[in-house]
Amino acid sequence: MVLDALRDLPPAPVLALAFLLPALEASTMLGVVFPGEVALLVAGAAAHAGGAPLWAVLVAGTAGAVLGDLAGYFVGRRWGHALLRRLPRRLVRPAAVERATALIRRRGGPAVFLGRFTALLRALVPGLAGMSGLPLRAFATWNAAGGLLWASGVVLLGYGAGAGLGVVEHRLGLASEVLLALVAAGAVVVWPRHRG
């Protein structure tokens, strides 16, 4: 049932989802609330079901991740401090922002690469890198490497999960049929006793 729904999705919305949510994650800080890997997992499962070619999902997800973080870098460079002041303190603590910015200043590109693999950092590190003065070339290089590895890994996990969905659906289908048969048998035994 889930695989049928994924199979019936046209490729265009699957690819748009795989591109847009990772792209919006850092460029609009949407990732603070809704991590982009959810879209990539679904798109990977849809690719397994035949809803979109796997190679296209990999390209769309990687492009969204890399370009979105590049936009986040420029947003952080231009408006980062003002935007951070507007975020709720429960989501982003000033002390944590200072530590992350200091880490980016000390470690540079490797901090950008590692930040890619944690949801909250993934949404904030590009902007913090722009705020910290990390050179664009260093950011772009490490961002591309992290984006490629992260997006490909998550899409492939979704693809593998799509294979597992078929097995789970089949087993759940068998279990529900057995349960229905037991309920029906129980009703056949109990119902005549209550009638008479």
From TrEMBL:
Signal peptide residue numbers: none
Domain (VTT): residue spans on this chain: 34-159
UniProt keyword terms in alphabetical order: Cell membrane, Membrane, Transmembrane, Transmembrane helix
Q: Where are the transmembrane segments?
A: 12-34, 54-76, 140-160, 172-191
Q: Which InterPro entries match?
A: DedA-like, VTT_dom
State its location(s). Answer: Cell membrane
Q: What is this protein called?
A: DedA family protein
- The organism of origin for this protein: Saccharothrix lopnurensis
